[in-house]
Amino acid sequence: MKLRALLLGILLTSPVATYGAGGNSVVTVNPPIPAPDWTLPAIQNAKGNLSMSDFRGKITYVDFWASWCGPCRLSLPALNALNSQFADDPVQFLAISIDVVEEDAWDFLKRYSVDYPVVIDTEGDIARTFAVDGMPSGYLLDGQGRVREIHIGFKRGDELKLAESIKRLLSDLVTSEVDET
């Protein structure tokens, strides 16, 4: 619950939040906050359970979505295109459905399929831990698993801003690797 309180505080008081038309916003988290670890069942593009710790060492975009979310019809295909764009980089996209009924998520994914792993949080526990405050909500994590940006909502063009953020983190990742040698 401590992380939830921190994230809520950032969302409510952050002077660095930028708001776009349509109610979408991007919040820079500075200093970065460690993302919570979790384990959820995979429903597409992976088998068994996945955990947040499975993606450490990669820049990860954790996208919370739901079948009833209108903007998710735009965001999932846009994120899938970014997944292809960064396929050769240490970047991982991950979708977390918050649908209560798994079949609703599967029906949605038949229409708006993605090539990256999808897990489901039918109880909403992980969404609450992340203080999800709108659909879709995305969390950009650095290679150490720390939340660097929070994206709430989605409109066309948001994927371009996200791509720039990912490129900055990739640059930081390369710089830190060079510094270690």
From TrEMBL:
The keyword Magnesium does not apply. Residues 29-171 form the Thioredoxin domain. Residues 1-20 form the signal peptide. InterPro entries: AhpC/TSA, Thioredoxin-like_sf, Thioredoxin_domain, Thioredoxin_ResA/DsbE_sf. SUPFAM superfamilies: Thioredoxin-like. Keywords: Signal. PANTHER family: PROTEIN DIPZ (PTHR42852:SF13), THIOL:DISULFIDE INTERCHANGE PROTEIN DSBE (PTHR42852). This is TlpA family protein disulfide reductase. It comes from Candidatus Paraluminiphilus aquimaris. The lineage of its organism: Bacteria, Pseudomonadati, Pseudomonadota, Gammaproteobacteria, Cellvibrionales.
